[in-house]
Amino acid sequence: MELRDRVAIVTGGATGAGWSIVLRLVDEGVAVVVADVADVAGEAAVAAISERGGSGSFVRTDVRVDGDVEHMITFAEERHGGVDILVNNAGGWGPTANYPYASPLQWSSTLDLNLRAPMLATQLVLEPMRRRGGGAVVNVSSTGGLGFAPYESPEYGAAKAGLIRFTTSLAYAREDTGVRVNCVVPDWIATERAMGELAAMTPEARAAEPPLVDPDELADAVVELVRDESLAGRVLLLPRGEPRRFLG
Predict the structure, then answer these.
(1) Phi, psi of 208, rounded to the nearest 5 degrees
(2) Cis peptide before 210 (omega within 30 of 0)
């Protein structure tokens, strides 16, 4: 896909790894809709995009709310004329207890954020993208969704595992709609939260940790999946301290 003059939506795009994805797309000439719950950061993101010479806009979006997701897509169509790229980046889990100690409302919110929201957003962009001749969806999962080891947030791990299988299940969508759905699976990303957790470790434990995944590496992977029209239903792993590779 030629990226210049395309329109992208990046959920959770105002800060962290999402912001790195936004900047990478902007530098490729893409008009980016930053969809986020953080109003101040969202408006600051648009100002920074403008200063960079790019095109961008902000729409406040809680992807756990169906109406917000619907509005996000309508906003992109009305403001920028359509949607060519969707990056389902928003994710995470709550700051307090996890399953089974969290309430059903808490752990179901994590499932909504990390799995149901990408499924809904993808469903809603298929027809708008088809009308424009096709498009690309990239889901951002996590290595928390891989393997069989114990995991501190079971609801998050289950959602991210589901997001991977959701992606591979949609390999046929390219033939039906012209939309390619792919997934990137980063290990621990060097965000502010991750750096804080590293700092809290003992020096010995910290020294034993492989280097974190640079947010720019994630952004590069997203652009690779968007640009390469031969890729559909593929899962790209970004491990720490190792080269990226496709799974399956």
Answers:
(1) -80, -10
(2) no
Whether 205 is in a domain gets the answer yes
Q: Is residue 23 within 8 Å of 52, Cβ to Cβ?
A: yes
Question: What are the tens digits of pLDDT across the range 66-111?
Answer: 999 999 999 999 999 999 999 999 999 877 789 999 999 999 999 9
Q: What is the pLDDT of residue 194?
A: 66
Global pTM value: 0.95
* Extended beta strands in 118-194, E state: 135-140, 179-186
Distance CA 207, CA 211 (A): 9
CATH for 84: 3.40.50.720
Largest interatomic CA distance in the chain: 55
Report the domain count for the chain: 1
Domain residues for the domain of 183 are 7-247
Q: Is the residue at 50 inside a domain?
A: yes
Active-site hit among 99, 101, 151, 156: 156
Segment 11-63, tens digit of pLDDT: 999 999 999 999 999 999 999 999 999 999 999 999 999 999 999 999 999 99
Instruction: Tell me if 66 is assigned to some domain.
Output: yes
181 pLDDT band (50/70/90 cuts)?
very high
- Identify whether 2 is part of a domain: no
Helix (H) / strand (E) containing 163: helix 154-169
State yes or no: is 99 an active-site residue: no
